[in-house]
Amino acid sequence: MLLDIPKEALSTHAVTDYANVGPSEVTCRNSPTGHTSVPQPAKSNPMSIWRAIMKKPRTAVRSCHQKQASGHEGREKQVLSSSQVKPSTPDGTMPKFPEAPAGLARRQKEVVLRDPVSPYHLFRDTAEVTVFRENLLSWYDREKRDLPWRRRAEGEVDPDRRAYAVWVSEVMLQQTQVATVIDYYTRWMQKWPTLQDLASASLEEVNQLWAGLGYYSRGRRLQEGAQKVVEELGGHVPHTAETLQKLLPGVGRYTAGAIASIAFGQATGVVDGNVVRVLCRVRAIGADSGSTFVSQQLWSLAQQLVDPARPGDFNQAAMELGATVCTPQHPRCSQCPVQSMCRAHQRVEREQLVASQSLPGSPDVEECAPSTGQCQLCAPPTEPWDQTLGVANFPRKASRRPPREECSATCVLEQPRALGGARILLVQRPKSGLLAGLWEFPSVTAEPSGQCQREALLRELQSWAGPLPATHLQHLGQVAHTFSHIKLTYQVYGLALEGQIPVTITPPGARWLTREEFHTAAVSTAMKKVFRVYEGQRPGTCKGSKRSQVSAPSTQRKPSPGQQVLDSFFRPHHPTDVSSLNSMAQ
Ligand code: SF4
Fold first, then answer.
1. ∠ at Cα 290 (288, 294), nearest 5°?
2. Are 505 and 570 in contact (CB under 8 A)?
3. Neighbours of 99 (CB within 10 A)
4. Using CA of residue 280, residue 281, residue 282, residue 287, what is the dihedral sign?
5. Closest CA to 460 of 435, 436, 495
6. FRET pair for 26, CA 20 to 30 Å: which of 272, 304, 315, 393?
7. Confidence bin at 369 (pLDDT 50/70/90)
8. How far is the CA of 322 from the centre of ligand 1 (A)?
9. Quick one: which atom of ligand 1 is closest to the CA of 391?
10. What is the sign of the dihedral through the CA atoms of 386, 392, 398 and 400?
11. Vertex 31 angle, CA 29 and 36, to 5°
């Protein structure tokens, strides 16, 4: 039972697969009617072939495959893993898989049959890929930003030091803007210029330097990775994306590809949020870019496009284009080096032409078949073109689940007359979970309308500092902070120990800090927001205390880089290794 499918009608993987095994091996073993053949379209033009496939023969394919599905459901649902996506050949064509076992080849075919992709969304020949590379790289050579990690990586001859420089920058840039990262990166590399330096640092020091950058487990994982390289890998960073991802904690597919291509010259493509946007626009991919299928297609495109002669520069150029030209809201298409091959731009021009001529439909130019709902890379028919968005119709944003809401009561407990100046109590969070190991004001989880909040908070305070005057506990206000998956509202209380014997015995896990120490400690941005509420409200019991004479550090008046990150904390910028970030997001 054979199913002959023109290779041009298949997805990127399908073309590869078909080229490797030949049409006679594409089987549909469970078909009750025996050999099922899709008639070969008359023309060899890929769009003609695609349209032919999208018509009646496609029904035959689906029918055959649906019957097959019941018996092979589990196997058919498999998608290609990162390790299965092979590098492109130097000329930009997709590679063959001479080493692929027959089982893998069959799985690839079956995935393709379920997930057809129009060639409209692909790069179809070597010439197109070559032009894309050349245009992008020559633009990058002219326009690239001068960034400290680029300078360091370009000037470093030692491969492990170079990899470390790239690794730190890529981890910091996850979910964080370049402008924010520069200062953190500079301080980090001054403090720990080598993997060995980082491996010997304490987690407390790492958290302290990371404070304000968000997603705190990134710093911890980075240090764990450095320790692994030093203690188990002889001080040498793995050279390939596959081994980087496999051996280093916190290194996902994107980070591994970035390190391997930039530091070691491996021809491996990468996909971050900027690349998603660029590729979705250049190939008019309107399907949900967060879906597994679209993600696989984007990784395949990136792999096909990456320049084997300059893979690191190419990957950085693609990201740079997304960050500076093909931006989410106001893309500057007139300055774009790949405008001539951008399908989103072509679509805008076509729609404008149709509108200006009051034509009933699109002119006869190349496009996919979005109205059929058949192409899995087109926007669904229920989401029509929005004239006001222009190229920003791509990529389509997946609807995000709103963060769950939680409430916490927290208290700034202060000794205004402590020896050596006013001090505030900080306690350390558990070693795992949200904000692991960071310092915070004593807190209790609380229901938003909980009546026992005050009593519970007082008990928590007393467990750290002994008997306290309950009447001095004042509610000062509230402040909200959104973590990746939680919107946490803090009910902020204050209590000043006036006229009492200073607390000198500190239990393990607690510290009395001066204001200066607080502002440089490993505390989260949320705690700094809480402290600002406390400073702004000043409990009545503290009026006239010495605390009012303590000048606030300059960082309090002028937002530090860490505080600036608040506004951009969750703004998509360099979303990479999304799966790993989700698990460690804080
Ligand atoms: S032409 Fe416009 S939409 Fe297309 S890649 Fe360039 S900036 Fe993005």
1. 65
2. no
3. 7
4. positive
5. 495
6. 304
7. low
8. 9
9. 3
10. negative
11. 95
Cis peptide before 395 (omega within 30 of 0): yes
CA of 53 to the centre of ligand 1 (A): 30
- Mention every residue, 6+ apart, whose C-beta is less than 8 A from residue 430: 436, 437
Place of tokens 């998509």: 572
Question: 83's torsion region: left (phi>0), alpha (psi -120 to 50) or beta?
Answer: alpha
139, 275, 281, best to mutate for ligand 1 pocket (most atoms within 8 Å of CB): 281
Share of the chain above pLDDT 90, in %: 52
Tokens of residue 427, six digits: 């306690």
Of 397, 391, 367, residue with least CA distance to 120: 367
Work out the pLDDT band at 304, boundaries 50, 70, 90.
very high
Tokens for 105? 């080849």
The single-letter code of the amino acid at 257 is: G
User: What gap in Å lies between CA 216 and CA 195, rounded to an integer?
Assistant: 19
Are 304 and 12 a contacting pair, CB within 8 Å? yes
Q: HSE, CB side, 13 Å, CA atoms: give it for residue 166.
A: 30
Tell me the pTM. Answer: 0.67
Query: Which atom of ligand 1 lies nearest, measured to the CA of 339?
Result: 1
Q: Are strands 404-415 and 486-496 parallel, antiparallel or unpaired?
A: parallel
Tell me how far apart the alpha carbons of residues 138 and 136 are, in angstroms, rounded to a whole number: 6
pLDDT (mean) for 180-184: 97
Q: Report the residue among 345, 346, 347 best suited for mutation to probe ligand 1: largest number of ligand atoms under 8 A from its CB.
A: 345
Show the ligand 1 pocket: residues with CB < 6 angstroms: 278, 281-282, 325-326, 331, 333, 336, 338-339, 342, 344-345, 391
DSSP designation for 248? S
How far is CA 545 from each of CA 120, 230, 416, rounded to the nearest angstrom?
A: 72, 51, 6
